[in-house]
Amino acid sequence: MRLLIAFSSWSPGGADRTYITPVIPAALDAGWDVHTACSGREDLRPLVQHLESLGATHHTCELAEQPGTGLRYRMSQRRFAYRMTRLLEDVSPDRVLLVLPWASYGLGAMRACSRHGTPAAVVFQLVKSGWLPSWRMRATHDLLSGSCRAVAVSDNNRIILSEMFRLDRQNIELIYNGTNTTPTGNDDARSAARARGRAAAGVRDQEQMLLTT
Questions:
Q1: Phi, psi values for residue 39, rounded to 5°
Q2: Are strands 33-38 and 120-126 parallel, antiparallel or unpaired?
Q3: What is d(CA 150, CA 106) in angstroms, rounded to the nearest whole number?
Q4: Is 70 left (phi over 0), alpha (psi -120 to 50) or beta?
Q5: 1 — pLDDT class (breaks 50, 70, 90)
Q6: Burial level of 107, CB count in 10 A (0-12/13-18/19+)?
Q7: For residue 194, is pLDDT > 90?
Q8: The three-state (H, E, C) secondary structure of the chain, written as one string
Q9: What pairing do the DSSP bridges indicate for beta strands 2-7 and 148-152?
Q10: How many degrees, rounded to 5, is the angle at CA 26 between CA 22 and CA 27?
C-alpha cells in the first residue's frame, strides 16, 4: 500500500506534527510506502527534513492556500486541483491523508482525489462556526459524502462540521489530537526542570501550580 500525506500549511504548526509525525513510522511498520507533499516554502524546510528523517519520500507541491470566498478564491481551486492531480499521477497512492488547518481549505485537493478515484481521509484541525458561500458548502458536502471521508479532532469540531456541510455526524470520524504521555528523561532531570519552571513562575514550594492553554 502507498500512502500520500499532503498538507496545505504556510508554516509549520502543531497540526502537521500532531497528525503527520506519528503516522509515518506506524505506516512504515505496517509495510506501507509513505510519501509526503507540501509547499516548497523555506519555513517548511525543517519540518520536511524531519519527515524525511522518519523515512518518508517527500514531494514539493504548492498546496499552501489562503481562505477566501470570492471569485478569485473560486478560480484558485482549479489551480490546486490541477497541482494535486499531477501529484497523484506522479505518486499513484492507494490512500491520501489530507491535513487541513481550516474548514475553508482543501477543496481543490479533495476534488482531485475524487476525480482520480483515490480514497482520502480529510482531517479538519481547526473548525469554527461561520459563513461559507453556498456553492462551497454544497461542493464540500458532495465530496465528503463520496470518496473523501471527514475526520474531526474534537467532539465540538465534529458537531460544527456536521452542521456546516450537512453531514451525518456518525459519518465523520473522530480522532482526537494526542500527545506522548510517557515520561522522558530520568527522575533527576525531570525534578530539576520542574524546580526551574516553578522558580521562573515565582511559585513557592508549598504552593500548587496549575497550567492551562
A1: -60, 155
A2: unpaired
A3: 12
A4: beta
A5: very high
A6: buried
A7: no
A8: CEEEEEECCCCCCHHHHHHHHHHHHHHHHCCCEEEEEECCCHHHHHHHHHHHHCCCEEEECCCCCCCCCCHHHHHHHHHHHHHHHHHHHHHCCCEEEEEEEECCCCHHHHHHHHHHCCCEEEEEEECCCCCCCHHHHHHHHHHHCCCEEEEECCHHHHHHHHHHHCCCHHHCEECCCCCCCCCCCCHHHHHHHHHHHHHHHCCCCCCCCCCCC
A9: unpaired
A10: 115
Q: Name the grid cell of 91.
A: 505518486
Q: What is the dihedral of CA 124, 153, 145, 67, to 10 degrees?
A: -20
Confidence of residue 184 (pLDDT cuts 50, 70, 90): low
Q: How does residue 9 score in pLDDT terms, banded at 50, 70 and 90?
A: confident
The C-alpha atoms of residue 158 and residue 169 are separated, in whole angstroms, by 7
